[in-house]
Write a structure and sequence with these properties.
There is one protein chain. This protein is mostly beta strands and 451 residues long. 5% of the residues lie in helices and 38% in strands. It is built from three helices and 28 strands. The strands form six sheets. It has a nine-stranded antiparallel β-sheet with strand order 13-14-15-16-17-21-20-19-18, with no helix packed on it.
Length: 451
């Protein structure tokens, strides 16, 4: 691991106060080239809408932030609408035009403005700015994970262990399910068909990802005893109605090291993947959250790893090599290539990593479920030691009650999409943080036409 961008742990001074010693690169290269900001937005936290509606994020020079959609143009729920992870339409001639979002609400607590229950998936037309519901169901609980498939459908997943609003076709499913949405080919803002995919396991889903072979990876977002990481291998590419579910198991009962994918045998009534994983001694982690694949590596955000002596850790990002013999490492780990946050002392560092994104140039983007919610950028592991060669602070949220979710890059490698949920202003939103570039007027018109 190259130590040039190492973030050091705070040192205890003789006077008894903490002094952070954090080294940053002069500039991070790539399409989103930036000079890391100096620290988290501890001194700028606010609930003032006049501030937050204009500049929610503390960002580097050379970038601008803008609201793509908020509750003024789509307000489904009485309280906050909680937009979560997102996926840009990536298919065919209208690629990059539409942004799809899940809304992580629970029917018993979060009421719709029309008096109905249940979660929804919404879509934003990035060309017109209009937002609408794509599809909603009264039995959907805490929709969270979402991903675009190579066969042009959308997968969404429920993050629930309660099963309080069961799927009518699978009423005995133990927890949340994955659903596949087929879009109307003539209108990509309309859902043609929605199908439950219970063979991907009934668990508290969040992260969901797909590899080049059409295998689908999911996680069980559980704190105690812990959640596992699963791999579904379909019998036929693009058909999730039949196939086998596997779970990750690191050798010798460890959390990292050499691992294997172990086949599971799901109960055909409950589809309880957590119970099946426990039966084969699967490796469990403290609250796995999002998944992101870059090439032959799968990354998992672990909110409270590494857990030591039963005590939750600050969080880490796991890397899993997608080869015949998987190797598992803590790709981002406090004390190794990033500092651990000490909020009381205003020491910037990692705390509760949540959502992940592929920055298109091999870098992994990470946003925290924390206040302030920071966005970090991790360099690839070029020296093969399992750790990111550097981790850089890109942005920090000023909203004192909110968290960033759903970071995503679409067609434009210079634009990051990110959601703001649980906002203290009561106005959840989807935003873009864009690198300012110099265009000729002809280039600008061409770019607008393409989008």
């Amino acid at each position: 691991m190259n130590k040039k961008i190492l973030t050091s742990l705070p040192l205890l001074a003789a006077v008894g106060s903490f002094h952070p010693v954090i080294g940053f690169a002069d500039e991070v290269n790539g399409p989103m080239a930036f000079k890391p900001i100096a620290g988290s937005a501890y001194n700028e936290l606010t609930s003032d809408p006049a501030v937050l509606n204009e500049s929610t994020w503390l960002i580097p020079k050379g970038f601008k932030q803008s609201v793509i959609s908020d509750e003024s143009n789509l307000n489904v729920y009485i309280n906050n609408d909680w937009p979560d992870m997102n996926t840009v339409n990536e298919a065919k001639k209208q690629a990059g035009r539409y942004l799809y979002r899940t809304h992580e609400v629970r029917p018993g607590n979060d009421q719709r403005n029309d008096g109905k229950l249940g979660g929804t998936v919404s879509v934003i037309d990035l060309k017109t700015g209009k937002a609408k519901e794509l599809v909603a169901r009264e039995d959907w609980e805490a929709l969270d994970g979402i991903v675009w498939t190579p066969w042009y459908t959308i997968l969404v997943a429920e993050e629930t262990n309660s099963g309080g609003y069961p799927d009518p076709d699978h009423p005995h499913a133990s927890s949340g399910l994955v659903y596949e949405i087929e879009l109307d080919k003539d209108d990509l803002t309309t859902a043609k068909k929605v199908t439950a995919r219970p063979l991907l396991g009934s668990i508290a889903h969040e992260g969901i990802e797909i590899d080049d072979e059409g295998n689908v990876y999911v996680i069980d977002e559980d704190r105690a005893p812990g959640g596992s990481i699963f791999k579904f291998v379909p019998d036929t590419y693009g058909d999730l109605s039949t196939g086998k579910l596997f779970v990750l198991r690191v050798k010798d009962g460890a959390q990292i090291g050499e691992a294997e994918w172990v086949e599971l045998h799901l109960d055909p009534v409950t589809f309880d993947a957590q119970a099946a994983a426990e039966q084969v001694g699967a490796t469990s982690y403290c609250r796995p959250e999002d998944l992101e694949r870059i090439g032959k590596t799968l990354y998992a955000a672990l909110t409270c790893e590494p857990r030591i002596g039963g005590k939750d850790g600050p969080g880490a990002v796991l890397s899993i090599s997608l080869h015949e013999r998987p190797m598992v490492s803590y790709f981002v780990e406090a004390g190794v290539n990033i500092a651990e946050e000490n909020k009381s002392a205003a020491v910037t560092g990692l705390k509760s990593p949540d959502n992940l994104a592929n920055g298109s140039d091999g870098k992994l983007w990470i946003v925290e479920d924390n206040v302030p919610s920071d966005i970090w950028v991790a360099e690839p592991d070029n020296d093969g030691d399992g750790h990111a060669d550097g981790v850089h602070l890109f942005a920090s949220m000023k909203d004192k009650d909110a968290e960033g979710t759903g970071i995503y890059f679409g067609k434009d490698p210079h634009k990051l999409f990110v959601n703001v949920q649980h906002s203290g202003t009561g106005n959840d939103k989807t935003m873009a943080i864009t690198k300012i570039r110099k265009y000729s007027e002809t280039d600008e018109r061409h770019n607008e036409d393409r989008d």
